[in-house]
Amino acid sequence: MKTIQEIILKAESTLHLKNHERPRLVIASAENEAVLEAVSKAKNLGLQKIILIGDQDEIEKIAYRQNIHLNQFEVIHEENKVLAAEQAVLLIKDGHANMVMKGLVESAIFLKAVFRKDMGINLGKTISHVSVVELEGGNLRNAIAREAYAVITFPNAHKESLRADLNVYLAEMEEVWAITEPGLKLEMDSVAVPEKVLDNESTFKLIHSLYACPLFLLEQASSHIF
Q1: Is beta strand 99-102 parallel, antiparallel or unpaired with respect to 24-28?
Q2: Using CB atoms within 10 A of its CB, is residue 103 exposed (0-12), middle (13-18) or buried (19+)?
């Protein structure tokens, strides 16, 4: 399997097998647009039970904006992030769910609840964490994502000055890589503003996470990237 769609199709076929236990999911701090969108799709794909723990008012507001019917979920009101994570773990421990997902709660808080000796689910058994990401560009034998692209937003007032600076930068990069990458073409185009964009804090964390990766290519090109 190479795409998320293939994983979904495989999961759908598995769920239809006779006597196969249906996943029962609980989410800590579910008051998040991406979370509710994901669980709504998951419910349509066959998840038997989904429990949303979080600020119920915020959950209802987001669901209304996204036209998601909450009557297909069980909603437990809990505004406190620590208590939401602990309650999610207890539902796993008591058998009401068999998968737990982190919503709008910090990883440190979430993992502390999972591994608490007095109430966590770390009971000597294997605990699995699954994260699935699909990236466009690059391939198995080529780590440089030549076909990849990014949409970057910035204030419209800076458009012309940024375009001028970037045109100079792109020309310099094409010159730098002219020998090793003679076909390299860097372009910048104006597009419509995306429906969703990363906030400043998330952007900062993403860039620094990439920079911290122990990859030779990033390390080698760091003087050009940053």
Answers
A1: parallel
A2: buried
